[in-house]
Each structure stands twice: as C-alpha cells, then as structure tokens.
Amino acid sequence: MNVLVVGGAGYIGSHAVRRLLLNGHIVWVYDNCSLGHAAAVPENLLLQGDLRDQEKLTGILREKQIDAVMHFAAFASVPESIAEPAKYYDNNVVGTLRLLEAMRAAEVWRIVFSSTCATYGIPEKSPISEETPQRPINPYGFTKLTMEQALEAYAQAYGFGYAAFRYFNAAGASPKGDLGEDHNPETHLIPILLQVALGQRPHIAIYGDDYPTPDGTCIRDYIHVDDLSDAHIRALDLLEPGQGIRLNLGTGHGCSVQEVLAACRQVTGHPIPAVQAERRAGDPPELVADNRRALQLLGWEPAYPQIEATVETAWRWHQSHPAGYGD
Ligand code: UDP
User: What separation in Å is there between the alpha carbon of 106 and the centre of ligand 1?
Assistant: First the structure.
C-alpha cells in the first residue's frame, strides 16, 4: 500500500515507518518536526507540514495516491494536558479533524489511529478489556476519546475503515539502538531513569507511594514500541469500509514504578538513586491491558513481554545517543 505516516518522525511513528518499509510498503512521512526528529526518518520520505494544514494534506494524499493513513501526530503528556488543555484540544482534536476532512476530500478511507489507555480513566477492573467504560480523568484522555468517537461516526456516515489502538505505556527502542525516545522536556519514567543512570540527572522522583497497589507505586503495562508498530502493520490488511476495530495494545502484565526502577538498576548496573515525591495529578493507580482481543484479531504477540528486555533496548539507545537525536 501507499501509506502516509502522519507524525512519522516521532517516537512510535518512526518505528512504524521502518517496519512499513521492511514490509514493502511505499511510505511518506508527514510531520512538522515540532516534537518529531527529521533524523529519525529517511530524508527523502519526509514531507514537512502541520496537521492542521488541511489543504496541504489533501494535496499530498491525492498526489501520492495514498491508500492508508497512520496517524501518530499528537501531544501525549498527561501533566502537560492538564496545564495546557487548549494546546491538546487544538492539535489532537482540531488537527485530527482536519486530517479526516483531507482524507474525505481525497477519498482515502483507511486510517490507523493512536488512541490510549488514558481513555479508560480509573477503571473498576484490571486488566482492562475493550468493553471497560471509557471515562477519562485528564484532557489528554478526553481528546483521544473524542477522536475515537469521531472515527466511529466517520465510519458510519462516510465509510471510513479504522483501527483505534489504545496503547498502554509505549517503551523501549529499536534493537539496533538507532531509533528511540527523545522528548524535551522528558516526562516518561523509563527515559528519566536511564538519564539518571547516564549521570544526566541526580535521581528519580517517585510520584506517590500510597496508591492501592502492592508496593504503593503506580502500575503500568509497558509495551515495546516495535510491538506497537507490528500491530499497526497487521491492521492494514483488516480495515474494511464502514467498520472500526478498537483494540488494547499492551503486554497484559503490569509493572509498578518500583519494579521498573529495579529493572533499570539491573540492566544498567547503576544504583539509580530514588526520592519519594507527591502524587502526580491525573495518574490512575493501575493500567494493565487485557490484550486477548488484539492477540486473536491481529494474530499478534508481543515480542518483548518482559520489562528487562524492553529496558535493554532503551538503554542501548540512551547510551549511544545521550543527547537524543541531537537536534
Ligand atoms: N513516574 C514517576 N516519576 C517520574 C516519571 C513518571 O514516578 O519521573 C511515574 C508516573 O507517576 C506513572 C508512571 O511512572 O505512575 C509512568 O509514567 P509515564 O509518564 O512514563 O507514563 P504515563 O503512565 O503517564 O503515560
């Protein structure tokens, strides 16, 4: 297929681009490089532009005869979404609607959309199945849920065929260590822990030790970024006009902040000092995927079910790229 990867210069998008190319697809990357990195994608595939530029998107979809869109271009930090909701609604909702309208104009109906476990809010049961009611507790989760709902409406009214993947916590890096996570400022747990191991930070602050979990710290399901991109490619063949697939993408296993800290200490051999801090607003105590539907529907299985293996790939990236992509 001819695939336009919107946000393809970002962390998850760049891994998807690489795998699409390996699978023989023709790929174009659309990214404004505000958060993405030009160095993360082959130079000749990068088309610079903003998600809100509907006219430009329509032109590219037509000119490149695009069959399917993968849409990764989003702001995805929970704390930032609480501090700056306008930014999140503008990009994640308004921007995505512009993309959908460009697709409608260019008659492209296939889309794989990055959603999130943050749409579930504080779920009553764990692990979380796709049937769990979606009740976000932060603006980031609301923007993604809004777009899941819009996609369903576009499927019914205009014949879009979509997959909405509810990612749990994306983690890790390419096994070669040449693609990885580079956010500025960094807010995610594993990169911060590895920055401490590199001597770039003095310690990690553990946000809350009084959650209702066995060791008191929050539990998350850390899914390797290559496993996410694998699922995306499998979905391309399953899209049908007028139909939506909504799937959780996670390993099915939870790790507490303390367990992730222990894994990082083990992989790096560094003591990684930790200090206790206040809870961070908007953090649910536990988010773990029931991933059975994805396993069955996609014929997918995470290649990195263990946190240590995921951290090893991230560590390779951080050691070889202490300043990220250096841009
Ligand atoms: N966390 C932490 N210290 C940090 C960064 C994160 O204790 O410096 C915790 C955070 O409160 C959450 C978990 O690690 O419970 C994962 O956070 P992250 O920001 O990586 O992902 P999120 O779950 O917010 O998408």
Answer: 39
